[in-house]
Automatic annotation (TrEMBL), chain A:
It comes from Dyadobacter psychrophilus. This is Copper chaperone CopZ.
UniProtKB/TrEMBL annotation, chain B:
The keyword Glycosyltransferase does not apply. InterPro entries: Homeodomain-like_sf (IPR009057), HTH-type_Tx_Regulator (IPR050624), HTH_TetR (IPR001647). The keyword DNA-binding applies. Residues 1-48 form the HTH tetR-type domain. This is Transcriptional regulator, TetR family. Residues 11-30 bind DNA.
Length: 79, 177
């Protein structure tokens, strides 16, 4: 169990340029190592390459920072 | 959308636009496109199962039970043609997970056939052959009816009660011992 005392979950979605399994694999350690991320997946079948995260907080910024640091584009999906 | 354009033609963008919601909203409810298709399939199958089992008694005489089945399945397909084509698409795709089939439905069908065999109303057959005789003719006629055309040069095909009864009697004859 991840540290999430109040059990609240937030779903954050991002548009990225992660479109190959290879990239998902290389990003895995980064996202798996983040204690605020409960679950994540990337929809490779869709054109937005949506990164979907179930997190313990509602902030998009820390995730964007992480993904960009790993060398990918990442922006909040709002439309 | 899936029926008209196939799975590849389904983008979350197009779907969101058609549904009047944001892409982000769709991703709140569905993990990814595959998850969306699978949840949609499960829901459609559930509706189909409910409709198929309506007023159906698995202990009934085979002839009677099959007629109820045919009418239920036919009416469901006529009322939900998209559902029929969609569930077929999923069944023929790698997304199809056989373990998700409703056990209540399987149990009812199993009981129905086995009681009929015990009472010597039909012959025992491998299930694929049984299904191909007992139900495939119905679905083919339903498709002709929905497409409003059948063979080249033929007038539009209307599946009415008379044609149902005629086909059903032939099917039952084929399955008799």
């Amino acid at each position: 169990m991840k540290n999430n005392p109040d059990g609240q979950e937030f779903i954050l979605v991002f548009r990225t340029n992660i479109n190959r399994k290879k990239d998902v694999k290389s990003l895995s350690p980064v996202l798996n190592g983040c204690s605020e991320i409960i679950k994540w997946n990337i929809d490779l079948s869709d054109c937005d390459n949506v990164l979907r995260i179930e997190a313990t907080h509602p902030d998009h910024e820390p995730v964007i920072h992480l993904v960009k640091k790993a060398g990918y584009t990442c922006e909040e999906l709002t439309d | 959308m899936i029926v008209e354009h196939g799975f590849e033609g389904l983008s979350m963008h197009k779907l969101a636009k058609a549904a009047g919601v944001s892409v982000a909203t769709i991703y709140i409810y569905f993990r990814d496109r595959e998850d969306l298709i699978q949840q949609l399939y499960a829901e459609e199958m559930q509706k189909m199962v409910e409709a198929t089992l309506r007023d159906f008694n698995p202990e009934s005489h085979f002839d009677e039970g099959l007629k109820v089945q045919w009418l239920n399945r036919m009416n469901y397909c006529f009322e939900n043609p998209y559902s029929m084509f969609f569930t077929e698409q999923v069944k023929h795709s790698p997304l199809f997970d056989r373990s998700n089939i409703d056990t209540r439905f399987l149990h009812a069908m199993h009981l129905f056939v086995h009681r009929a065999i015990e009472r010597n109303e039909i012959i025992p057959l491998p299930v694929e052959i049984y299904w191909s005789i007992a139900f495939a003719p119905l679905y083919q006629l339903v498709k002709f009816h929905i497409a409003k055309s059948s063979m080249p040069g033929r007038p539009p095909f209307i599946l009415d009660e008379e044609k149902i009864n005629l086909t059903l009697s032939l099917v039952i004859k084929a399955l008799k011992p």
